[in-house]
Amino acid sequence: MGRYMLRRLANYLMLLIVASTMAYFLAAMSLNPRSNFEQQKPRPSIQQIDATLRTYNLDPSTPVVVRYAHWANGVIHGNLGINIKGDSVNNDFGRRLGVSTRLLVIATIIGSLGGVMVGAQGAIKQYRFFDRWTTLSSFFLLAMPVFVVAISLEIFAVDINQAAGTTVIQYIGEYNPDLSGFWPVMLSRLQHLILPTIALSLFQIAQYSRYQRNTMLDVLGSDFLRTARAKGLSRRNALMKHGLRTAILPIVPLLVYNIVLLFTGATFTEKIFGWHGMGEWLVDSITTNDVNSVAAVSLFTALLVLVAGLLSDLLYSALDPRVRFS
């Protein structure tokens, strides 16, 4: 298995290099960082703009290959460059990554586990009320745009706050910056975390439950479940110990890739609820022609794909004892 994983790691590293290189070239050749300085009032001189762009490694008169080599050398040494405002991309990266992590950890746990359990239960209770209700609710959620769900949750929060006569749920920002002290800040963070967590969890539960239901239906009539029942296992134990473990195998890659790539894919949720995470950073970097920031997010996304691929392989081998890597 070790040799197999090393080969997979080598393949993923090559994909990481290719993907990040193509992303940098695409950003460097399509974005126009000069326009940011030309729109300033008072407008800097051409000489000042050229000097600033050279300092930031964004000068279009410098061959893109040379700029890429400078950027790649910095990445190797842990330096992601300078953003369009003259600040370190590393600082932006660390701050945004922390925000996305705090936002997504709870939501992904609830969404993935909830989706698997709802889908499995729906298959077990096929065509009963629970199955029909969860199926209808899932398709309803998946058909709705993210911003509609988010705004609906915000309206719901306003109604709750009015009914309670106090602020129970906050829905803009990560926390109240006017507060001080550990517990007041922690309470504020929890109040701000409720709605985006619900929004992200609902969509994940709706998506994963559909896949899990179908895979669970495929194993309900299998021979190994009948054998388990014949050996004395109750129906519940047989389904949970053998059926669910087998049914989850086909969706392991989907779960892992979606969960990991959500770090840069929760753009709408971050924008609507005012969380300044990785997804929002990517959109803002493109709109401001910030080449180095776009390249940093692209590199991070490619790294996430590498991690997701390795995790998927490890989980698949752990869940399926028939798999042997050589």
Short description:
The chain has 326 residues and is an all-alpha fold.
Number of strands: 0
The largest pleated sheet is described as: none
Secondary-structure class: mainly alpha
Percent of sequence in beta strands: under 5%
N→C terminal distance: 5 Å
Give the radius of gyration: 24 Å
| Gross morphology | globular
Task: State the helical fraction.
Answer: over 70%
Uncertain stretches: none
What's the architecture of the domain at 93-319, going by CATH? Orthogonal Bundle
In DSSP terms, counting alpha (H) and pi (I) runs of 4 or more, how many helices? Answer: 14
CATH class of the domain at 93-319: Mainly Alpha
Report the mean per-residue pLDDT as an integer: 87
CATH superfamily of the domain at 93-319: MetI-like
Q: What is the helix/strand order?
A: HHHHHHHHHHHHHH
The CATH topology of the domain at 93-319, please? Answer: MetI-like fold
Structural summary, described in words:
The chain is mostly helical and 326 residues long. It has a domain at 93-319: Orthogonal Bundle (MetI-like fold), CATH 1.10.3720. The protein is 75% helix and 0% strand. It contains 14 helices and no strands. The longest helix has 39 residues, at 182-220. The N and C termini lie close together (5 Å).
Features:
326 residues, mainly alpha, MetI-like fold, 14 helices
Give the SSE map:
Blueprint (H helix, E strand, L loop, with lengths): L1 H29 L3 H5 L7 H10 L8 H13 L12 H36 L4 H15 L2 H19 L17 H39 L2 H8 L4 H13 L4 H10 L5 H7 L4 H10 L3 H29 L7
